[in-house]
Amino acid sequence: MSASSPTLTAPAPSGTTSAKAGPSPDARARRGGRLLALDGLRLLAALMVCLYHYAGRGGTVSASWHQTPAHVFPTLSQVATYGCLGVQFFFVISGFVICMSSWGRTLGDFFRSRVARLYPAYWVALALVTGAALALPAVVHPVRLDEFLVNLTMLQQPMGAPRVLGVCWTLWVEVRFYALFALLVVVRGVTYRRVVLFCSVWTLAAVVCRTSGNALIDQLVMPDYAPFFVGGLALYLIHRFGGDLLLWGIVAVSWLLGQSNATRGLWHAGAHGDFVRDPYVILLVVTLAFAAVAAVALGWTRRADWPWLATAGALTYPFYLVHEHLGWFVIRVLHRGLGLPAWPTLVATVLGMLLLAWLMHRFVEKPLGPKLKRALRGRKLGSRSSRLGF
After folding, report:
1. Cys-Cys with 333: which of 250, 337, 343, 357 at CB 3.0–4.6 Å?
2. pTM score
3. 286-296: per-residue pLDDT in tens?
4. Would you list the DSSP string of 296-332?
5. pLDDT tens string 107-121
6. With b meaning 16 or more CB within 10 Å and e meaning fewer, what string describes 98-126?
7. How far, in Å, are 9, 125, 161, 223, 272 from residue 177 at the CA level?
């Protein structure tokens, strides 16, 4: 791996390289092909969140098990309660992937790829969960028609409407990240210099905005989650160009801020009960999340070229969308309705959600995603839109 990196004073135009701003031949070879290990990490993060929703928390899932998961799975629940950190893991991976996939693309390409990637499976998940809520409202109460229609936009949270999918709050975080990155970086072309400046400014803004007390600024800057996205962005630059003190410094600061945010949000001194988290374990999980993506960035996972990892990556998004509420539905039917023991119910539910995710990928995402992307291309609206890449 090249130890040098491009200088900030001579960035190359998007999609091109130069003697100072371009990657070394080693870096070019390193970024060639699909990073299958990253697909595996995405599914691992989704399974962490799934385990949390099934065995690591109370609330609605307790009704499906007919008692708290801490009593159903005394040992597993102590591990599963940390599965919620799979969300932060996702955000680190997302920063890496978005930087990688937007390189050399126009703003229009970026917009179309995100819409075609997110919405087809999301709309189907909304329909499936709403159908399950109507069939068995004891698990999840169905929303009104007007609320369902707002959910189709993926903007239900800022609109104050109930969420059909519990996990879609993370999609709203992702959408805001995409918007920031698109408007501040992609619109002018993704380069090393612009990504580094974006990481630096966003990190500073995330720290400063905590003292502002302004709800709008907090929504835009996302101080709780910005360090994870920034860490992923910097790790992709390390993967593409090689590491140096500047990039590793950005990663280190992101990790330091991220672990603080995660611990502050998930641990409370003096807390007691079924699902109490240890601050040192939270720190460990966040550290492992950054370390796992760093291993991909450094090329340490190049031997993980197993074909099934590509399938794992393809299943991650639809699985993440449907596993929560539909999983609670299946648990209630299998465990309380049919009397299946707890462990077989848990395994059958996870496997069933993975099967459903594969069906959604095969019959929804694969055929509809490309069609939606082509439909969004439309006609050129004039010279200004052409310059922006639409």
Report:
1. 337
2. 0.89
3. 999 999 999 99
4. HHTTTTTT---THHHHHHHHHHHHHHHHHHHHHHHHI
5. 999 999 999 999 999
6. bbbbbbebbbbbbbbbbbbbbbbbbbbbb
7. 26, 22, 21, 12, 35
